[in-house]
Each structure stands twice: as structure tokens, then as C-alpha cells.
Amino acid sequence: MNDDYHQIEKVIQFYLKSSREDFQPDRAAAHVGLDSSQLKILFEEWAGADPAVFFKCLKPAFIKSQMDGAVTLFDYMFDGEKSEPEISPDRYVEIEPIKPADLQNGLKIFYSSSQTMYGDILIASSGKGICYVSFIDQPASGADLLKRAFPGSFVINEQHDFHKEALKFFQEKAGDSNEKRLNLHVKGTPFQLSVWRALLTLSKGELTTYGDLAGINGRPKASRAVGSAVGKNPVAFIIPCHRVIASSGLIGNYRWGSVRKAAMVGRELAGNKKPASKKETGFELRNL
């Protein structure tokens, strides 16, 4: 799967550098040493969609069409009478904050690495839940990274049951919406935790902007604060910060690389079992 992703990544990078012109399968295939039929098989096996459909989903105009009438997710943060949002039906994930006393008492953190459909990851957990998930493109010491992130903790190179549960989020097939339950035990400020909980309301194939996530018009400082919290998400993919994009419809930046973010967004939109209709979007996904 990792070899497939590396080829997918090269094709996406080639497309993004081509000024997002209409996807040309022959040129893209040649760029990674394949012919167009092999490229089609690669994308159908990895993304569950024809490459033409996949790249149509990355066009800014199409992405913007998916956000028309987007629900404001974050009003509750600025109104004490409003409750926190419900978790999306396909993401039964609970967040518990790591308290300073947890670290002072020598929190035990277990870590392991694994391959996923989007590349290699480092995954870590305490005894209460997943505390860290990060894509790792370069060889690095997981222990050193985690000791810096969680000073005072005891770091143990050992796979925990929580790791196996977290990996199920990466192992689903495109378009699959099976329910999964997972506990997260993360370090963050109250504001950051609120942003991360709000991100969990976004279902697969659902996108929002930083402004909509903040839910405040005319207060750019709030949008910047939300953007900062999104960028500090400690649990890659499971807390779906990749579903926050620029209001222009461009994919935008991502802590683990904009090409990887494009891979996630394209795969989720192209593999969504209930895409918006042609009438709603101006795009026909089935016959391109």
C-alpha cells in the first residue's frame, strides 16, 4: 500500500504543479513510469475512483460547490448557553485532556509505527487513549519526538490495543462509513480542545473553511486563532483537520504536506457514496 501511495503522491504533485489544468492521464502516467491503463488501475484500487473523477474533485470550483450552505460549526464556543457539537455519526471519538498532573506523575506513553494508505505513521497512546498520531516521511526517533512533546513522560516502544483501534480509521475502504469508537487523550489548551472537538463533527467528504469553523463574521483574529489550533492538531487524520480548506477552494497548507492533504480530500470526495448531484454542483462525477 505504501508503494501505491508514493506513486499516487507523485501524480498529485505533478497535477498541482500543472496549474490545475484538465487532468491529462497520458502525461500523468508517463510522469510515474506507467501507461494510462495502469494509472487507472492504480487509482481505482487506491481511491475507489477513476483518476479523472479523483482530479475533478480537486478543482477549486468543485470544492467550493461542496461547501455551499455550509453549517457554522463553532458558534457554541462564543455562547455559554450552547452545548458542544455532536460527534459525526461515522466518528465516535471521545477526547479527554491530558492534565499537568498526568505529566508530573510520569505519564506512560506507548508508541509504534505502521504503514497506512497515506504513508507511514507514528502512533502513541497513554493508558487512557491515543495521544499522538503523526505522518513520518523521514527516519526519526519516535522516543525523542514524544519526549519533546510530552516532557516528564515515560516513553515505551510497544504497540498498545489503542493503536490497533486507531489503525482501523486508516484501513477503511474508500466510501466506507462503518462506525468506529476511539478514546483520545491529548494535550492542549481549552480553546484548542474545542477546535479539535468541532473538527470531529465533519463527516467524510464534508469540507469547511477556517472562517466557517470560527463561525464569526468580521473577526479575523478568531479565524487566525482557529487556524493555529487546526495546525497544532496532534492526531493526524483521525481528528480530520484535512477537511478545513481555503475559502477559495484551494486545498491550502497542511502540517503533514499539502500533497498528502490533497490525497485525503480527493479520495474522500471521489469515494463518497452520496456525492452532491450535478444540479447542485455543476459537475457530473460518474461520466467524465
TrEMBL record:
<dbReference type="Pfam" id="PF01035">
    <property type="entry name" value="DNA_binding_1"/>
</dbReference>
<dbReference type="GO" id="GO:0032259">
    <property type="term" value="P:methylation"/>
</dbReference>
<keyword id="KW-0227">DNA damage</keyword>
<dbReference type="InterPro" id="IPR036217">
    <property type="entry name" value="MethylDNA_cys_MeTrfase_DNAb"/>
</dbReference>
<feature type="domain" description="Methylated-DNA-[protein]-cysteine S-methyltransferase DNA binding">
    <location>
        <begin position="190"/>
        <end position="268"/>
    </location>
</feature>
<keyword id="KW-0808">Transferase</keyword>
<dbReference type="InterPro" id="IPR036388">
    <property type="entry name" value="WH-like_DNA-bd_sf"/>
</dbReference>
<keyword id="KW-0234">DNA repair</keyword>
<protein>
    <submittedName>
        <fullName>Cysteine methyltransferase</fullName>
    </submittedName>
</protein>
<dbReference type="InterPro" id="IPR036631">
    <property type="entry name" value="MGMT_N_sf"/>
</dbReference>
<dbReference type="GO" id="GO:0003908">
    <property type="term" value="F:methylated-DNA-[protein]-cysteine S-methyltransferase activity"/>
</dbReference>
<keyword id="KW-0489">Methyltransferase</keyword>
<dbReference type="GO" id="GO:0006281">
    <property type="term" value="P:DNA repair"/>
</dbReference>
<dbReference type="InterPro" id="IPR014048">
    <property type="entry name" value="MethylDNA_cys_MeTrfase_DNA-bd"/>
</dbReference>
<dbReference type="InterPro" id="IPR001497">
    <property type="entry name" value="MethylDNA_cys_MeTrfase_AS"/>
</dbReference>
